[in-house]
Amino acid sequence: MTPPAIGSPVSRELAVADLDRSVAFYRDVLGFEHRGGGELVSGPARVRLVAAAAARDSAGRERPRGAAILFLQTVDVAAMRERVAARGGAPSELEKVNWIKMQVFQVRDPDRHTVWFGQSFQQPEGPKDPARQLRQALPVLPVADVAAAIAHYRDLLGFHVNHAQHDLGVMDRDDITLLLVPRATDGARAATEFYVRDADALHAELTGRGARVEGEPVSQPWGLRTFRVLDRDGNQLIFAQPFE
Predict the structure, then answer these.
(1) Separation of first and last alpha carbons in the chain
(2) 102 lies in which domain range?
């Protein structure tokens, strides 16, 4: 079976304490080819390992060991993780990182440098059709307090926190991702619609969580069974189940 490959060009120099030990790790655990000395290659990726005493930056200062982050894009991140684990590399669990659209894991080398492996989880594009422009929606909802809104979507609406910072919440549930951002001073509200598998079951779930549900599901004449929820900032979430 062909081993998982690295698919993007990288060129890095890393300071190490024990050259032979680090060469063995990159060769035997991460699958690099040793070209002699501290030179290692894997597809378009090049890593040069140098003894810490010989590693200097442009100002002549010694480069610290364990401070580097090496990111390697692979064509099969799950297979790469299995391979690293089988060779004793102790990789982290696979993680979906929405804002870079990648599934990733990390492993530490003997000098505690961090090596990330990642693969895009975007669907490959089919034949280009000039008449089809839109592919996926990413709702952006304005809120007065991002931290409070993150807790609201997590606890009352069943979303998971993909990423959180003071001015951004990236929230996932099933195949849906939405962004929570600070609301402008004009107080504008937003509305977004989600297609769901079972509107009645979701209605019962959200009601039980204490969400601000606006009425019972209604079968509309245009072929959708819908109900509405207002979040804590008054943004309107419409959940719609197509029916025959």
Answers:
(1) 46
(2) 10-120
